[in-house]
Amino acid sequence: MTLRIRGRMDASSAGPMIQQISARLKEYVISSLTIDIEHVDYLDDYGTLVLNELRKMIPHERASFQIIHASDKIQELLSVLNFDSLSTQPPIQKKGLRGVIIRIGEETLQRISDLKYVISFIGSVILSLIQVCSNPRSLRRSDTLLYMQRVGVEGFPIVALISFLMGLIMAFMSSVQLQQFGANIYVASLVGLAMTRELGPIITAIIVAGRSGSAFAAEIGTMKISEEVDALFTMGFNPVLFLAVPKLIAAVIMVPILTLFSDLFAMVGGLIVGVFMLDLTTNSYIAQTIKTLSLFDVFWGVFKSAVFATLITLIGCLKGFQATGGAAAVGQATTSAVVSSIFMIILSDSVFSVILRYWG
């Protein structure tokens, strides 16, 4: 069969042309197809698509296909578009399963590379802090105050609410057992010790990790992907000093303060349970709390919260600087920052518990 085409083969005629020709070709069993385009006035990439679709309408293993009487301009266009190779499908290569040893080796090398980056980042933070101590004007005070507001002031309501509810729950659950022995007054001791030594710093740190740690990772990760971090480096700024140090100082200052408020609101929650359910007086509850607690307990919790704040900020900023790729990398960095921060909070608290046990 020989098919002669006239006129223009462009975007406006490609669709109708394919429909009309395919409808006619279905009526025949084609052993060979020749396309005569001697009278084609214009052909673009849409016209090339029409020719390729015509070639697909015949079985390649039994039929022949050729284009005749093409002008020099059309032949040049077909050559540029690699018309002869359009119908060939690249072979699908199946991915073989990698061996266990290969995967272990790749993961090991990746972890070593991450460890190198962590050490380099911590070194940069230490050098930046030394620079701030030697030259306080290098610290971005306005940004530090802004992050103090975001970490401390804006995080205060949720910390206060959760701590208050934790104090209620602890006092209520402990009173169920202590009432059997007439030891209602020791509810104040339990709530006070548990919050100041353990739960207050941990609850505050986890809330800050979810709010501020994720925000730090998302902010720096977005700047890293949009190449703003590289622009800072090109302009002569130290990205760690410019971005990480204000966040670190703000968190180290505000998280211990939030921890003190957390302890206070938890004790208020325990006081409500003690007064309204255990028939304790306000004075007796407060006196028992003061008798049980010592300054060491309070400052121990504050010290731990400062360490937790350091870990949260370092991990959040580190994950942000490690973000590579597109928008999905920001979400991955944020998730990784929160999970890693919570893990390090629990791990470091376990270490502190062991130290306190043998120190005491």
In short:
This protein has twelve helices and three strands; from the N terminus they run βαβαβαααααααααα.
Architecture overview:
With 360 residues, the protein is mainly alpha-helical. It folds into two domains: 2-85, 2-Layer Sandwich (Transcription Regulator spoIIAA); 139-359, no CATH class. The chain is built from twelve helices and three strands. The protein has helices at 11-25, 45-56, 72-80, 100-134, 141-153, 156-178, 186-225, 228-234, 239-277, 282-292, 295-322, 327-359, and strands spanning 2-9, 32-43, 64-68.
Helix-and-strand structural type = mainly alpha
Shape: elongated
- Quantity of strands, as a count: 3
Number of helices: 12
Radius of gyration: 36 Å
Series of H and E elements:
EHEHEHHHHHHHHHH
Major sheet: size, sense and barrel closure? 3 strands, parallel
Order the strands across the largest sheet as they lie in space: 1-2-3
User: What is the terminal-to-terminal distance?
Assistant: 99 Å
Proportion of beta-strand residues = 5-15%
Give the helix level as a range of percent: over 70%
How many individual domains? 2
Summed over residues and divided by their number, the pLDDT gives a mean of 87
List unreliable stretches of 5+ residues: none
